[in-house]
Amino acid sequence: xxxxxxxxxxxxxxxxxxxxxxxxxxxxxxxxxxxxxxxxxxxxxxxxxxxxxxxxxxxxxxxxxxxxxxxxxxxxxxxxxxxxxxxxxxxxxxxxxxxxxxxxxxxxxxxxxxxxxxxxxxxxxxxxxxxxxxxxxxxxxxxxxxxxxxxxxxxxxxxxxxxxxxxxxxxxxxxxxxxxxxxxxxxxxxxxxxxxxxxxxxxxxxxxxxxxxxxxxxxxxxxxxxxxxxxxxxxxxxxxxxxxxxxxxxxxxxxxxxxxxxxxxxxxxxxxxxxxxxxxxxxxxxxxxxxxxxxxxxxxxxxxx
Amino acid sequence: xxxxxxxxxxxxxxxxxxxxxxxxxxxxxxxxxxxxxxxxxxxxxxxxxxxxxxxxxxxxxxxxxxxxxxxxxxxxxxxxxxxxxxxxxxxxxxxxxxxxxxxxxxxxxxxxxxxxxxxxxxxxxxxxxxxxxxxxxxxxxxxxxxxxxxxxxxxxxxxxxxxxxxxxxxxxxxxxxxxxxxxxxxxxxxxxxxxxxxxxxxxxxxxxxxxxxxxxxxxxxxxxxxxxxxxxxxxxxxxxxxxxxxxxxxxxxxxxxxxxxxxxxxxx
Lengths: 305, 268
What we know:
Chain A is mostly helical.
């Protein structure tokens, strides 16, 4: 005789599961309207020592480096889009930890070089820390001429020390596998360091040699657009001076200048934002709302004599 | 030899029926698929992170399979008292141990092979969807065959850990065996520190003890070539060959020790 077990129907239980899940979601929605978890203003880094992190990783150093790298990217992105309190204070410790866990994490050194040195509010404004990170990169990867070039870059753009910049460009050139254009670059830097044209050459070379790294290319594009904007501002200042000479006063708005010059459109920067116009002096400036703001000071701001 | 093969076959069939390895493999596959989503946060480092995450998944899930199933191989038989029936058959206790080990290593190999196939599928997808400029910036190709070398050494490390688990399971309780095996795995990651102990302290006796421990405890750090392979650095075949040989010798020694203990064990 075969005994067949009667399997009970679970339909009521499945319905109960769905109903309880719906109630659980509703409760969360109601609770979250009146409560937000506490988040410290600048986050907390429990582990700062690379050596400790390496030991805790138990052989999975690369994976731990990846986790900290993603944390650095998210932290940087979060700070950059936040409207207030941009400190970037944890950017260097995070990148230092990433490169201690994985000393060959190429992009972490280069990311640090760009965004630690970038002036506030676009970056941390700490070229000294950027150089420290890059020197660590050079020590760990002596054949990487890119890090040496980046140190020269920082001396050039952030510190306006063209002699030291040329010296680092020459050091980069001496490394096996370095591109030919580093030689002329060092010479140009010494001869006309700080000119807008040499800055344009530098960023163009950086852009072309890093076509595969999206954010590096985007940063180079932004810098090149800033240089274009500076050229345009110079030309617009000539026009507004002419307006002042003709009328004896500064233009009140771009419409007046456009009418006098018979322009078909108002002048916008390479990002599409209207240029600012000082109604007292007629001086042209980049709008603070432009993604290209602020324009670099010192080095690249100077036109070729 | 036939007895060993029969026991190994039985272990393999039992492992196939057991759902634990399957769930781990499925989990690993899901994790690798998720790595594609994670890669969206990586600012251009997606291939590196997918490679790292894939190798780490294989190593971690392989370790869990090796420890939790390895421990149960002998202790389950003893607990269920099925060992009495087994030992009345024409199988010596040494053959029983060797067969159990071979069966689990075979299970591990099949599981790792499944994970590697999933891993390469994710990498293939990365490769075909990447632009030529992106590909030019990679330090090593997406479908780098040298990743198999890293996987081979992970497998060899797991074979050693399986032997450790089996060794402990012949004379201790399952819980203690799990703790001891995981403890030895952690110690094995730091073993290289014992070699340079004289740089830390100035006590000849302690330095001597550290040196002995360095050679006696399993040295697992050389099995880890994940970073070299992911960054496209050369890995010497001599290193790989010697490490594989070391794994075979060390696992063999543990199996002999396990057999020696198991032969003298009194089942009442």
